[in-house]
Every structure is written in C-alpha cells, then in structure tokens.
Amino acid sequence: MQIPYELALGWRYTRAGRATRRNGFISFISGVSMLGIALGVAALIIVLSVMNGFQKEVRDRMLSVVSHVEIFAPNGQAMQDVATTMRQAKQHPEVIGAAPFVAAQGLIARGEDMKGVIVRGIDPQREGEVTDLAAANAQVLQQLTPGSFNIVLGQELAHQMGVQVGDTVTLIAPSGQVTPAGVVPRLKQMTVAGTFDSGHYEYDSAMVMLHHEDAQRIFRLEGPTGIRLKLKNLHEAPRVVQELSGMITEFLYLRDWTQQNKTWFAAVQVEKRMMFIILTLIVAVAAFNLVSTLVMTVTDKRADIAILRTLGASPASIMGIFMVQGAMVGVIGTFAGLALGLLVACNIDVIVPAIEQALGASFLPKDIYLISKMPSEPQSSDIMPIAIISLILAFVATIYPSWRASRVNPAEALRYE
Fold first, then answer.
1. Do the Cβ atoms of 300 and 23 come closer than 8 Å?
2. Which of 241, 315, 326, 344 has its CA 20 to 30 A from that of 234?
3. Start and end of every MacB-like periplasmic core domain (predicted)?
4. What is the pLDDT of residues 87-108, one digit of tens each?
5. By C-alpha distance, which of 16, 99, 69, 61 is closest to 321?
6. Is 76 in contact with 225 (CB distance < 8 Å)?
7. Please, how many CA atoms are within 13 Å of residue 47, restricted to the half-sphere of its CB?
8. For residues 234 and 236, what is the distance between their CA atoms, to the nearest angstrom?
9. How far apart are the C-alpha atoms of 86 and 73, rounded to whole Å?
10. pLDDT tens for residues 106-142?
C-alpha cells in the first residue's frame, strides 16, 4: 500500500539529520520539545498515581473502622425492631454482613486525666462481618461479654491516658440522672480488656468499644441505635443506600461511608484537580515549543515548499506535511512519557527505597507520618485524559506554523535560490 507523500515527508522532516548546523539546531529543538512533553506526561502520571495511592491507603484504614453503610435511628434513639431491619437489609444482593451497634459520646477518666471519646457498643460475634478491625482483633473483642463491663481502647488513647490491660477507667455518660442535688452524670467503672490499632490516628486516639448491652445499660437505651452493613463492592454504597431506603419499613436514616468523611474526600479531589491543572501547564509549555520548532523548519524548507507547489502540491498538502511533523513529535513524546510514567508509578515501592538508601534519608519517617511507604495506584481514568490532552495540545501547536507554510509564495521563495 502506497503511503501518502504528506505522511512520508512529515516523518522525514521529523527525523531530519544533523548534516548542517541549521538542521542540527532544529533537530535539537525538536528533541527538547519531545523530551519536555515526555517528562510532563510522566510527571502527571507519577504524581496522580501517588495521590491515588495515598487516598486508597487512608480510605482502607478508615474503612477498617467505619462500615460501608450505617442504618440508625433519629436523635440517637434505640431502634424499634433490629432483627426485622437486619433481615430486610440482608435481602439486598450487595449486602454480605450486618451487625448492630450503639453509638454515643462520653468521657473517659483516670485519676485527674479526662478525655472525650466516641463510645461504640458492638456485638463481638457479628462485628467481624462488617469491619476488618474487628476481624483482626477478634480475640480481644471476645472479652467483651454482657455484664462484664470490659472496654477496649484505641492504642493512642491508652497511651495518652497511661493505662494498660487490666487497669480500670471511669466511663462518664453525659446524660445523667436527676437527684435532689441536680442532674448528676452517670459513672461506671470499666476494666480495660485490650487495645486496638486501626492505623488511623482519629480513631486510635478517640474511640472505645464495649459490648452493646453494657452500652445500653450505661446510656439507658432499650436497644441498639443502629446497624452496620458491609457490601461486596464499597463503591456501590451510594446506590445501595438509595435502594435500601425503599426496602426498609421502619423510619430510619441511612448513611454510606462517603457521607461520613465527605469533607476529606472532597479535599482530596480538589487537590488532585489542582495538581492536574498545574502539571498540565508543563505539558502545554513543552507542546507549544513545537511552534518555534516548526517555524524554523518552515523557514529552512521554503525552497522545498516552493518546489512541491510547482509540482502541483496543494496548500492543504503542504499544511498536512508540517502538521504530521508536529504531530509525530507530540505522539512520540506522549507515548514515551506514558511508558516512563507507568514504569516509575508501578515500581515506586522499589525506586523510592533505593533513593532513600542512596541519600541516607527517609522521606516518610514512621514516627511522624501515618503512612511510612510511598504508595502508588495508576488508574486508567487518570492516564487516558493525560494522553488525550497531551496529543491535543501538540496538534493545536502545529496549526499556525503549518498554515504559514501553506501560504508560502513559490516565486518569492525561489527568487534567491
């Protein structure tokens, strides 16, 4: 099959040799443009992949404590029929686990130390169905039996309070009882049965767990305040919430995991969007370097353009030749950047430790940062737009110089040749 001469000439100009000083300089500028596009695309892929990795790591640690979906009664009241609601929720094909819980707030006191805490009453037999944290700490949570008034503290909270397994702490419920002296908060001595480490400071420093029946007695509730659900696919949680709202007969509120941490996820998305815009400007600068490359090429090839015009080439064909040249630089630079970016992003767990070892430094010290390893998760939803935008910018940058080439007057160009 015969290749169109516009494509053949455009490719020939792209790989022009360095026989003369002028051709060599043009080839150098073309190579710099190609390298700039490649580095810009690679930087975009690496940065967004690392941000995705951090988001996934924090999300997974968050979801080890937070369930995919929560069903709860209004105003922190006890649910009327927990068994029926659980049965109705489990009828949904996406639901693979359900467990009742009591959610409340209180104070933990030991000596003169006192801290506000999130109190979670759980069923140790079922909690492992809905959270990874419960499954990983099953032996500790089995000590939470009805009437024992044992309590499990977050590891950071236990460290701040200076308590160990077997020590006693006082749990204070804010809603007290009325006495002749006024409203007196309810206090209950609790035995520390163990600690948990979720890897998320917010929960490790402010959450305690006890059996839901003990929590009901302390907070004077007639039953659990809600039900936690685990889904097959956590990304389907918003849809499942909408469908469950029509399946459950009792008047209850439903909330998925994205709503519980809406501010944090929104902030991450804004950061990703801003990084995408900033790094895209790097690709844009490199792509528009093609303008200067093609302008110099057009100036250098004026005689060739004039000869082609006298041989019958149309202005559109001349324009196509130089657009092919610019597009080739953009395509090669984009695909080189994709290859480099994916290579680094997929092997960042090897590259970063090697750099740290070579420099004798630690980028993410364990004693400072929650995540001590550089995570990475390349996603096609990020990579495809990067490649498309890079190609579009390179194509747009070729339009004006190519149009100027098509307007070259053959007589004027050959006058001094």
1. yes
2. 344
3. 30-243
4. 888 888 898 888 899 988 888 9
5. 16
6. yes
7. 18
8. 5
9. 13
10. 889 888 888 889 899 988 888 888 888 887 788 888 8
